[in-house]
Amino acid sequence: MVKTTNEYINREISWLQFNARVLQESKDHRVPLIDRLRFLGIFSNNLDEFFKVRYATVKRIVDAGKTGKSVLGGEKAKDLLEEITKIVIDQQARSLEIFKQIDKELRQENIFIIRETEVSESQAEFIRDYFFKKVNQELMTIILNDLTEFPLLKDTAAYLAVKVVMKNGSTKGRHNRYALIEIPKGIDRFIVLPKEGDKDYVIMLDDLIRFCLDSVFTMFDFESISAHMIKITRDAELDIDNDLSKSFIEKISSSVEHRKISDPVRFVYDKSIDKDTLQFLKEKMDIMDTDSVIPGGRYHNRRDYMGFPSLGRHDLMYDKIEPLPVKGLSMKGSLLDIIAHKDYMIYAPYHTFSYVTKFLREAALDPQVRSIKITIYRLASDSQIASALVNAVKNGKQVTVQIELQARFDEQNNIEYANHLQDEGVNLIFGVPGLKVHSKICLVEREEVEGIKRYGFISTGNFNESTAKIYTDYTLFTAHQGILKDMNKVFGFFETNYKINKYKHLIVSPHYTKSTFMKLIDNEIAFAKAGKEAYIKIKMNSLTSYKMVDKLYEASRAGVKIQMIVRGICCLIPGVEGMSENIEAISVVDKFLEHPRLFIFGNDGDAKIYISSADWMTRNLDFRVEVGCPIYDPDIRQELLDTFDISWRDNSKARVFSAKQDNAYRKRAKGQPELRSQFEMYDYYKRKLED
């Protein structure tokens, strides 16, 4: 049972319950076998990021000698750290059991992930050849015994802790040597061995190194060698200095570099490691009993399972969907001309993201286009978006890019893009001091007969071709001059931070998002008290703002019917009599990562509908630049109502939020057909093309 206060679920605990839903996917036999293994990788990757950010934040509160009750939903920080560690140990144990089951089922499919003890003679020859050609020269091996200072371990890198039992010419005395081998990151973690008949064999790089340990330590006269994996996770918070002589890029670069030596927040080890080896490491690393020490399995950095080879077994993976076109939005003609007459919306990955790059490439070449302005939060490693913007500069357009250098874990990638874009002549702006820019907007100004006309798009997700294949997000293309005038004011705010603009259409953080949504909820409360139908439908990633939770509780007590689809953290407790009995909440975790933010308010029969980049989290409402956009086009309004309804009716992958926080799947009524919303969503858009 997860601890709660009377009114809230702790956000860190709720996040761990979200990751438990990811872990459920790796156990679900409706998920193809290789994809189940990849969900284990996602679970592990999520956990790494959790410790780098959330656990590290709570640990900072403890280290500062504070309780943190005011920001942690009433729970003391020290107690919370202990609770987190217990939950994580339990989840890790479950993940190991799930892996054992997946491994068993892979073997039934003639796919064998073998250990070094299972290698045949023919495989041994291949492995040793592979080791000397590709691995040996990449190994970083450190003998620890005689070092006065323990080496700095890299954040989340995996290491083999090696114990070498030495011979000394005597039957009585033995002494041990200890070493660390860093698992090379530049080599595939999974090495596919030669196929034998209809059987596929894979060995992990860790075990390949274990198999060849005798070749690594040939200088020692040893009796035996054993190797067990360890890793640490470091605090990922950026500490930005105030040196006025440095540019913002230099400050972020320096802070990212400093992250490499930040304080450890978690130590994970193979629970089968020898006690003397573990004790040696803990003493050398100054690991205290109060630190988060997690006994794990034989393999760490299981995030690499996300890249498990397909082995040509497409029958064991999800079918790739072919992204659909949007009816009426042609890739052949001019998008600007089409958008001039009507708004259009794409819903990736069901629709092709190519419309976004097509829009920018057309704007880059159009002789009438004078300027392009865009916000960038995360870009693909080889970004067509960046390429189109550079192309626009080369065609004489004025291009302004607001790039967020503090996008978590994408800082280095964005720094490199910032330098590249700046070198190419793009006008870069770095947002507002103290605020991250998380909005997803683009504005194009075009000189036409009537004068300057604006075109643009606004999205709930990043302008990233790679994530658009696996994240679900809405993007609205519009030539609504009122919306785009407001959008231009947002870009003006980046340049003139002291000026607070007023907006007629957009909902903009940090000044208006919370207050606007509060007013919209108040409207529904007034309708409910007047005996009219009142409802709110919300789809978002996370709900952690206690003020917004309290407002929803107030609406529920007034009789407003509230439906919530929250993928990740949800601090609200639905279904509690006298507090939230009119609130239902579910989470959908499936093939794609649910990422849109959609808000629907009944408004006495004339629904107000918005898409937004903002979740209802304190950081999004008060400490970021976020943009929400009203939907005016009647066809798109209906489409958003339909897509919400499809997600809400999910009875296959929907988990129900409750005080129990047990991730229970929504039950189907007897005789009710299964509805898996992500699959139904694709069919819905296919049918729209046929209408």
UniProtKB/TrEMBL annotation:
Domain Polyphosphate kinase N-terminal: 8-113
Entry keywords, A to Z: ATP-binding, Kinase, Magnesium, Metal-binding, Nucleotide-binding, Phosphoprotein, Transferase
Alphabetical list of Gene3D superfamilies matching this protein: Endonuclease Chain A, Polyphosphate kinase middle domain, Polyphosphate kinase N-terminal domain
Enzyme Commission number(s): 2.7.4.1
Binding site for Mg(2+): R378, R408
GO molecular function, one term: polyphosphate kinase activity
Domain of life: Bacteria
Binding locations of ATP: N46, Y471, R567, H595
Domain Polyphosphate kinase middle: 123-308
Catalytic activity of the protein: [phosphate](n) + ATP = [phosphate](n+1) + ADP
Post-translational modifications: An intermediate of this reaction is the autophosphorylated ppk in which a phosphate is covalently linked to a histidine residue through a N-P bond.
Domain Polyphosphate kinase C-terminal: 335-499, 506-678
Active site as annotated: H438 (phosphohistidine intermediate)
Pfam families to which the protein is assigned, alphabetical: PP_kinase, PP_kinase_C, PP_kinase_C_1, PP_kinase_N
InterPro entries per the UniProt record, alphabetical: PP_kinase, PP_kinase_C_1, PP_kinase_middle, PP_kinase_middle_dom_sf, PPK_C_dom2, PPK_N_dom, PPK_N_dom_sf
Needed co-factor(s): Mg(2+)
Function: Catalyzes the reversible transfer of the terminal phosphate of ATP to form a long-chain polyphosphate (polyP).
Family stated for the protein in its record: Belongs to the polyphosphate kinase 1 (PPK1) family.
Protein name: Polyphosphate kinase
Naturally occurring in which organism (per UniProt): Flagellimonas yonaguniensis
The gene coding this protein: ppk1
